[in-house]
Amino acid sequence: MDVSQIPLFALADKRLGWVAARQAVLAQNIANADTAGFRARDVAPFAAMLTAPGIPLAATAPGHFSGKPAATAKAKDVPGERSPDGNTVALDKELAKVADTDMAHEFATGMTRKYLGMFRIALGK
What is the DSSP letter of 55? Predict the structure, then answer.
């Protein structure tokens, strides 16, 4: 059985991909906190990726809006206060984002673990 064909696991996989992309961008920001002229970057929120191709929205009522494809997890510059050397990285904000990303990772892996456990119980394994 390929669990990636189950929408819940496909969503969790997409979330984990977003978490990995964001973690890499945030690590670059922290690594370049002392680099003159470096501009802090971040990826689009995960909610914006939910309407990207691969997870279509289902209109289950006539009043629902149709979904438009959103951006993928690509890094973009984040506006912020510039230091005298032109750097826009604020370590306190970056570390808060890292903590948020870590919680998102824990949630996605925990949810996957719980649902796989339910499948195992249902299958008697």
Answer: S
- DSSP 8-class letter at 5: G
User: Of 77, 22, 80, nearest to 47 (Cα)?
Assistant: 22
According to DSSP, the β-strands at 41-43 and 75-77 are antiparallel
By CB atoms closer than 10 A (0-12, 13-18, 19+), residue 13 is: middle
Reported as a single tens digit per residue, the pLDDT across 16-40 is 999 999 999 999 999 999 999 999 9
Residue type, 113: R
- State which residues form the domain around 100: 3-123
pLDDT tens sequence across 71-113: 457 788 888 788 888 899 999 999 999 999 999 999 999 999 9
Structural domain total, the chain:
1
